[in-house]
Design brief:
mainly alpha, 299 residues
C-alpha cells in the first residue's frame, strides 16, 4: 500500500524531527509537557461537567470521556503519562505552592483517566508511577525490576494464542487478541522485512477472523514487527531504547515515569497514530536525553 507507507514514513519523520529539536532544548521541557496534558485534561473534564454525558451515546465510545482526542483510550494514555510525571514531581516538591499545584494536576489526571474507562491507561499509569517512585527514592534495582517484569508481561500477553481462549480473552481485552493473532500470522510469513508500512489493515481484510474492522494491530511493537519485520523493530528499538538508559540510572524520575507509561501503553494500543500521546511520550524521552547530556557536561 504505497499511500499507507508514505503516511507512516511522514509520521515517523515528524516524530524524529520533534525529538531531535527537543533534545537541543534544556530546562522546562517536561513542564511544558505537563502543561499541555493539563490543558487537554481540563478541557475534557470541564466539557463533561458543563455538558454532561453525550446524548445519544457515541456508537463506539458510549459515554466514556474521549474529547478532545476523539478516542477514550488515547485520552487515558495521555492522562497516564501526566499522572506518572506529576506524582514524581509531587514527591520532590519543596514548597507548599508546588505541592498544591502538583496535587491538583494529579487529581485532574486521575479523574480524566477514570472517566475514560481505559484499562490500558490504568496499567500504564501504575507501571510508570511505580518506576518513577522507585527512582525517586533511589531504588534503581527495584525500578529496573519493575520495568523488566512489565516488559515480560506485555510480551506474554501479546503472544497468547487465540483459539480455545478466544472468548475469555475477548472479555478481558476486547478484540485486541484477534488483532494480535493476525499480526503474528503476518510475522510468521515475512519475519525479516515484513510486508510494508501501513499494510496491517490489508492483512486484516484478508484474514478477518471476526466481523469487525480495524486499521491497526493495537500494539506499536507487534504492528511494526508485522509490517517491517525484525529490521523495522530493531530500528524502532534504536530510537526508543536510548532514553531508557539514563532513565534507569535515575537521571530524572518524573521523565522516566512518563516515558515508561508511554512505552507500556504503546504496546496495547495505536498510540503511534495519535500525535498528542506520542509527542508527550517522546518529549519525556527527550527530557531524559537532555538531562543526561547536561549531567555529562558538568562532569
Amino acid at each position: 500500500d504505497p499511500a499507507g507507507s508514505v503516511l507512516e514514513a511522514q509520521r515517523t519523520l515528524v516524530y524524529l524531527t520533534l525529538v531531535l529539536a527537543a533534545a537541543m532544548v534544556a530546562g522546562s521541557l517536561l513542564t511544558g509537557v505537563l502543561a499541555g496534558i493539563g490543558v487537554v485534561c481540563a478541557y475534557a473534564v470541564g466539557q463533561r461537567l458543563v455538558e454532561g454525558p453525550p446524548e445519544p451515546p457515541d456508537p463506539f465510545e458510549g459515554t466514556l470521556l474521549q474529547e478532545p482526542l476523539g478516542y477514550a483510550n488515547g485520552l487515558g494514555a495521555l492522562a497516564a503519562i501526566g499522572l506518572a510525571v506529576v506524582i514524581a514531581r509531587l514527591l520532590s516538591a519543596r514548597s507548599l505552592r508546588e505541592r498544591a499545584l502538583h496535587f491538583t494536576l494529579a487529581s485532574l489526571f486521575l479523574v480524566t483517566l477514570l472517566l475514560t474507562g481505559s484499562r490500558g491507561g490504568v496499567v500504564a499509569a501504575l507501571v510508570g508511577t511505580a518506576v518513577a517512585v522507585a527512582l525517586r527514592s533511589g531504588r534503581l534495582r527495584l525500578a529496573r525490576g519493575i520495568g523488566a517484569v512489565a516488559a515480560l508481561v506485555l510480551v506474554v500477553a501479546l503472544a497468547l494464542p487465540v483459539g480455545s481462549l478466544a472468548d475469555d480473552l475477548a472479555e478481558r481485552g476486547g478484540d485486541r487478541p484477534w488483532y494480535w493473532h493476525v499480526a503474528w500470522e503476518e510475522v510468521a510469513e515475512a519475519p525479516l522485512a515484513g510486508k510494508g508500512a501501513g499494510t496491517f489493515y490489508l492483512a486484516w481484510l484478508e484474514r478477518q477472523p471476526i466481523p469487525t474492522g480495524t486499521l491497526d494491530a493495537h500494539s506499536l511493537y507487534l504492528e511494526l514487527l508485522s509490517e517491517l519485520g525484525l529490521v523495522g523493530l530493531a530500528l524502532l528499538g534504536l530510537a526508543l531504547v536510548p532514553p531508557l538508559l539514563p532513565a534507569f540510572r535515575g537521571v530524572d524520575a518524573a521523565a522516566a515515569g512518563g516515558y515508561v507509561a508511554f512505552l507500556v501503553h504503546a504496546a496495547l494500543d495505536w498510540d503511534w497514530e495519535l500525535p498528542a500521546v506520542t509527542v508527550a511520550g517522546l518529549l519525556c524521552g527527550a527530557t531524559l536525553l537532555v538531562r543526561e547530556r547536561a549531567s555529562s557536561a558538568r562532569e
